[in-house]
Amino acid sequence: MTSLVRYGTPVLLALLAGCARQSDGFKPKILITSPSEGSISRTGITRVQGYAYDNDGITSLRVNGQELLDTPALRDERGKKIVRFEFKTQGGRGQIAYRLEARDALGSTATKELPLRVDVKPPVIELTRVELEDGTLRVVGTVTDNVKVNTVSVNGVQLNVPAAARVPFYAEVSGSSATVTAVDAAGNKATRTARP
User: Fold this and answer.
1) Which domain of life is it from (predicted)?
2) Checking phi first, is residue 68 left (phi over 0); if not, alpha (psi -120 to 50) or beta?
3) Are 56 and 23 within 8 A, CB to CB?
4) Under the phi-then-psi rule, with left for phi > 0, alpha for psi from -120 to 50, and beta for the rest, what region is 91?
5) How far apart are CA 152 and CA 170, in angstroms?
6) pLDDT at res. 17
7) Any idea of the CA torsion for 86, 114, 43, 144, to the nearest 10 degrees?
8) Mean pLDDT score across all residues of the chain
């Protein structure tokens, strides 16, 4: 007792400081490298890849409440400062979202939402004018999609069109018919034959 009295408050404070909970100035971070946020899929089954990192180590990584670090592929990653993860989405229709949550060794958490859109509908090709003159076929039309048209090609040659929900196009080819192909952001494909 005399040693505590002799050294006073500084010794007591030093002893109590050792019992105090560590403060955590750095919350875990979640980085999704694939797919990009708001991606579009034909089936809803998508491989998601990324990293969770924290200076105190990642002790839990959940997707929609299910622990990823309990899976055989990631079991040895628990407690590491950088955890590379990968999982497959389960599919669905319309808009679906996945909620990722990372927890560090000191209990701090971070969440990240990953919205995905499932699109099973192919684009629609509308031919507004098809004319044959001196062996040259002129094709005029519009491609529309419920999400976004990515490419339009005529006889295998990709046209320079912007990626949009509604895309007008014009092409001249030799021959008496042409095949117009359109692909949307999800990879759905439509084909139509153009004849005068």
Assistant:
1) Bacteria
2) alpha
3) no
4) left
5) 10
6) 47
7) -140
8) 87
Residues 160-184 pLDDT 10s: 999 999 999 999 999 999 999 999 9
Angle at 147 between CA 138 and CA 158, to 5 degrees: 35
Residue pointed to by tokens 């999800």:
186
Bridge partners of 126, per DSSP, are 142
SS3 (DSSP) at 14: helix
Rounded CA-CA distance 6/12 in Å is 11
Domains of the chain: 25-118 (2.60.40.10), 124-194 (2.60.40)
Q: List, for the chain, all residue ranges whose pLDDT scores fall below the cut of 50.
A: 1-7, 11-20
